[in-house]
Design a protein that fits this description.
single chain; 548 residues; alpha/beta; Rossmann fold; Helicase, Ruva Protein, domain 3; 4 domains; five-stranded parallel beta sheet; three-stranded mixed beta sheet; 25 helices; 9% strand
Length: 548
């Protein structure tokens, strides 16, 4: 007897059997119950998610011979149901739109549609990959699709609904099939392996389900390949040997070396992967996937339901997640996505991969701006390095600076109350702000100038090149802190309004040539806010990207 592949053997037979498309199945069942089955349906979604299967189930429900009318539970045993399952029922015509895409084929369909079904209630046309029909074929179908005979139903399936002309879509009820979650694919694979009485290791199924990319058919096809290997027990090593999937332990080891800031260990781990036959692009893809899991662990814990991992893998992910912070993982994932394209199109992919992963390993943990400003406030200049430590900052000693007009006892000097006075003493005000709120805040405000002071509102204007400093000063309660300190220094309650200077033409001042890239880079490097951050991180600028 001929072997039947798993994707066909375990194809869903009723609405209740369909996996991952419950809303669509329930809607179609309700339509059958209340007698509101449309004359045309359009099923859309990626490959292997159940579009043709759902079309056959709907056809069986409408034509099942065991009942007096359409039913939500076809018997799957009568002549009609059996023939529909086999795809050779005389009243349920399945057409491949890719090979029957001409206007002549559609005209023949129209001519045959007027004849009543031979034995069933409805003549049903299932057209797969309907987007492959030519424009002329679509137009030939319009009239019949809009006003079909009472005994005719159309079910269209496509992976590219954008290629189906709007006049066709408007005449159909459209259902969008979702990608099937990896967790549901995993459960279905478990069920099939038990029914087939095949032994397997638990750590095999999660990566296999992820490789299916939301397609149940792809998952079953991959499982078929592994079973064909003839192993007594299916295990994760088969993924590497027969499907080209990188060894998970080697990927975890590479991530561990990156997290330990081990340059030599990172290079050795890359060599280990490439030596086992894994390509550079596969390594990048695996790192994106595994670091995504670490990001979920850091954000939601290793018990989160959105992690498709075994208990042992969850434990391992929890241990490795401790070597990173969320900011580093987010940066790594986005950088790896850019790296993937570069590696795929490079003539020297390995050095590019090694250099990028060494950059991850040696950059150490990233500081977000709040942590940077906090450490700048709690430590002398230059004391904050790129490494984020948990050592408590030493207690600060009050430093008294000579203030020409503003100091910590503003009540001793009356405030004139005009904008010119504020402008003339702005640098001194910034020194006080830096002394009390930290040099980070003072550095950010040094790229702004007082513009107006009216009705108790002080307007401070940032340059067009420093909008991010304005946003930083407005976030996390900093604006209120600055307002309070200014009110204290100026001996008058005030509100602070931050603005960005109006855009100026790119060419600069009249009569001056446009700024060159070198000039722009120098301007950025000399910006007070940038200098403050570079000083705090003991860092250098490696590149400048313009945000347009």
């Amino acid at each position: 007897m001929a072997y039947t592949v798993l994707a066909r053997k375990y194809r869903s037979q009723t609405f209740d059997d369909v996996i991952g498309q419950d809303p669509i199945a329930q809607t179609l069942k309700n339509a059958i119950k209340i007698g509101r089955v449309a004359h045309a349906y359009l099923f859309t979604g990626t490959r292997g998610v159940g579009k043709t299967t759902m079309a056959r189930i709907l056809a069986k429900s409408l034509n099942c011979l065991k009942t007096d009318g359409p039913t939500t539970e076809p018997c799957c045993k009568c002549d009609s149901c059996v023939a529909i399952n086999a795809g050779d029922d005389i009243d349920v015509i399945e057409i491949d739109g890719a090979s029957n895409n001409g206007v002549e084929e559609v005209r023949r369909l129209r001519e045959n549609a007027i004849y009543r079904p031979a034995r069933a209630r409805f003549k049903i046309y299932i057209i797969d990959e309907v987007h492959m029909l030519s424009t002329s074929a679509f137009n030939a179908l319009l009239k019949t699709l809009e006003e079909p005979p009472d005994h005719v139903k159309f079910i269209f399936a496509t992976t590219e609904p954008n290629k189906v002309i709007p006049t066709i879509q408007s005449r159909c009820q459209r259902f969008d099939f979702n990608n099937i979650p990896a967790a549901k694919i995993t459960e279905q694979l478990k069920t099939i392996l038990r029914q087939e009485k095949i032994k397997y290791d638990e750590d095999l199924l999660p990566p296999l389900a992820k490789m299916a990319n939301g397609s149940m058919r792809d998952g079953l096809s991959l499982l078929d390949r592994l079973i064909s290997a003839g192993a007594e027990t299916l295990n994760s090593s088969l993924l590497e040997e027969f499907l080209g999937c990188p060894n998970s332990e080697k990927i975890w080891n590479l991530i561990a070396k990156i997290g330990d800031s081990s340059a030599s260990g990172t290079l050795v781990a890359i060599e280990d992967l490439i030596g086992s036959g894994v390509g550079e692009v596969q390594i990048v893809d695996s790192l994106i996937e595994y670091m995504r899991d670490l990001m979920v662990v850091k954000s939601a814990g290793n018990t989160s339901e959105i992690l498709i991992l075994t208990a042992e893998q969850r434990k391992r992910a929890g241990e490795l997640a401790g070597k990173f912070d969320i900011a580093a993982l987010v940066y790594n994932i986005t950088a790896l996505e850019k790296l993937r394209w570069a590696v795929k199109n490079s003539d020297t992919p390995r050095p590019l991969l090694e250099a990028s992963l060494l950059r991850f390993a040696l950059s150490e943990h990233f500081l977000n701006i709040d942590q940077l400003l906090s450490q700048l406030q709690a430590a002398p200049a230059g004391a904050v390095k790129k490494k984020l430590t948990t050592v408590e900052a030493p207690a600060r000693t009050a430093e008294k600076t000579a203030e020409p007009q503003f100091d910590e006892h503003p009540e001793s000097r009356p405030f004139p109350g005009d904008i010119e006075s504020i402008k003339n003493n702005w640098q001194n005000i910034l020194k006080v702000i830096g002394g009390k709120l930290g040099p980070g805040i003072g550095g950010l405000l040094s790229s702004a100038v007082p513009a107006e002071f009216e009705n108790g509102v002080l307007t401070v204007r940032f340059s067009t090149a420093a909008p991010i400093y304005k946003r930083i000063c407005e976030s996390n309660g900093r604006l209120e802190q600055i307002e309070s300190l200014l009110s204290e220094q100026l001996s008058v309650p005030l509100k602070l309004k931050l603005e960005t200077a109006p855009d100026r033409p790119e060419q600069g001042e009249p009569g001056q040539p446009p700024k060159t890239p070198v000039k722009k880079r120098n301007d950025i490097a000399n910006d007070p806010g940038v200098k403050t951050i570079l000083m705090g991180l003991d860092a250098t600028i490696t590149g400048v990207e313009e945000d347009r």
